[in-house]
Amino acid sequence: MIILAVLLIVIHLLSQWLAFVFKPPQVGMILGLNGLLVLSVLANPALEPGTIPSQRGQFEQAIRQWQSLLATDKLSTSQQINLWIQMGNAYQALGLSPPALDALLQAKSLFLATQNHTSTAAAMKEELAGIGVKLFISLSDISLAQRQDKPAREYLNQGKSLLSSQASLLIQATLLNQEGNVLAAEAYYAKALAAYDQGIRLADQAGDRLLATRTLTNKAYAYLKLAQWDPAVTSLQLAQQQLESVADNYDKAFSLISIGAWAEHIHSQLDARFLNSLPATVIQTRADLQKIAYHTLTAGLKIAKQRVHSRLISYAYGYLGHLNEIEQHDTEALRLTRQAIFYANQDENSFFSQAEQGSEILYRWYWQLGRLFKQQQHFDEAIQAYQNAVDSLQPVRQELAIGYRKTSQPFRERLGPIYLELAELLLQRAEQANDPQPWFKQVLDTIELMKTFELQDYFRDECVTQNNYKQPILKFQPAHTALLYPILLTDRTEWLLSLGNGLIQRVSIPIPAAVLKDEVNEFRFELETRETMAFLPYAQRLYRWLIAPLKTTLTTHQITTLIIVPDGVLRTIPFAALHDGKEFLITQYAIATIPSLTLAAPDSNSPAAVKILISGLSQSVQDYPALANVIAETRDIQQLYQENSSLLLDQEFTVDNLAQALKNTPYSILHIASHGQFDSDPQKTFLLTYDGKLTINQLEQFIQLHERRNQPVELLTLSACQTAVGDEQAALGLAGIALKAGARSALATLWLIDDKATAILIGEFYRQLHQQKQSKARSLQLAQQFLLQDSRYQHPALWAPFLLIGHWQ
């Protein structure tokens, strides 16, 4: 007998949503979105084995059973598509985005193949259209998970195009919920609210209280982004009411805990916004949120225990622990947090190994435990808890970097506090130790991990940091070279200074990170305006704060080169333009920057015969202005290298020509003189060619090692790129450009400058590098000094933005 099986699978965050959306007060929030129900109608009783586990939240077991079914040849095409969709959704529920995407793309391939069959019956076409809507909703969802707004919008529109007038109210409500999610990701919060309202109305008409609950929860997020606290609270209250008549099951427990976590987060946002001066209305709102959080988390915990679902039990205990942490009930918070850790390790069906089991949520509770121990001044226990949090992050680092919900907050704001708070505890221990060196090395190890994951997060590529050199720079640091490593903490700035003797010195500067950030942003803003000297007070103040405390040490050790590992907002400025009241820093030191200690090789393997590929765009194309002096710039470089150079200029500088040239010849230097942009979104980072835009991923592919290239490109020069003022994410991309492109060094600019000044500086740089055989850092220093001596180009806006990134020798 054929049985109609309605397969319900809760997707789009489930454990992932709880594990990564709701952050402690210091971190902010990742966008929690859909939580939709996908309906799959399959006329085959053999498909029932995967249904019950998924409804119970046992997604690993369901996936294994679905994989077995797909390995048979007994399924129709529509059944296969449905199972691939469900498998993708289940993977997504577990926070495993790469296999989730693979499964959904399998479903997409099968679905598109059915569209080519003209003989398909009308009824089957209608069924396939419904399946297609669900498929494209899921693809839109995972695109948001991977922070790709444009594909998310495109997939959503494809789903809408397949929606028939006879579509069920439930599928319409699901689509509207996803539309609200996409609009919220695009920051159209008012429009998102309208979509959510329509979705809630249709979900109510369809009698699906769980979908209405999740849409109301998403609606609370949109209100939160608009700082409309009371409507956000009302949305959560309505979501809570929707669940009162729902039977106890996994979905209800998940939804209750989700509401509780949201209420807790808004509670924290209010505390952060109003600090100690809470208005009377906010005090009441805060009390309402506390009540919602306590009741929903307690109710969710009760159901989770009845259903013996360890992951949900862990969430409930953990968020109850956080609620008590907020209210400063430390003893109860500790008890609940330890319970959360215990149950996070009890997930018997996890896809993770025993060592990694529960790590997708363990890091959160260990972090919470560390904060509680720190609050009680149990510093050794706090350090161990923080270290456990960091260790728990590593097995899921790729998911944290590229697999979670669209967020306007970069890695540094979401997860950076774990590393920075641990570093602060380790520095505290260093103060008390007879030998602080081991503690300093632990601090560096901790911050280096953060920098590694931060670059992975920006480029959305785990492989970008695959060349990890285990801090060789500290062991093989050249003479007269100082390595400056800033750590930006809440209440101060720390320098760790290495002078090549194997020892690390610490200099603590009482400038809080927030104060430093404001000063740096003002400096950068004023520095770009070449018509005034308004930058000078900021340049002098930053010198007094950051360099003056180190000056005696640098002079004593006869330092001539500074290698700076800039952090956060310090990536957005050129240290060369800091001023001691008499002269700029570049007159005293050659300066280079590296993204991290572990991602810069200490030695140089420059080829005996240097070959340079010079590319440039002098003409106005694609609405970008002409760079007339690019002709002189490229000509001068070509004259220096003569027969060892090749030129692609204007019409010849196309994406295909560049790819072919790099494939045919193992150039050691690649020079590109064209407009370029580094954006907070690496997908919007590009270099302009005559026929299009060259992405960083394309550049990486073109110059990667192959049969003709057995060494990386020695130098990549980008002479007209730019980043926005104060955009730390874009500056992070600039800092990692050499690493991403597979070059040992990069010479690039922080902002677009006069192309005549650029041509002069670049020409002098290559003359010093090629003819005078100076190091790259020294060549840049001499080129910048060359411009500084010319009255036409003395303003640092014209010479300072050039940064040498990566290997400096």
From TrEMBL:
**Gene3D superfamilies, sorted:** Tetratricopeptide repeat domain (1.25.40.10)
Tell me which residues make up the CHAT domain.
Answer: 537-806
According to its UniProt entry, this protein's organism is Thioploca ingrica
Q: Which SMART domains match?
A: TPR
Q: Any idea what this protein is called?
A: CHAT domain-containing protein
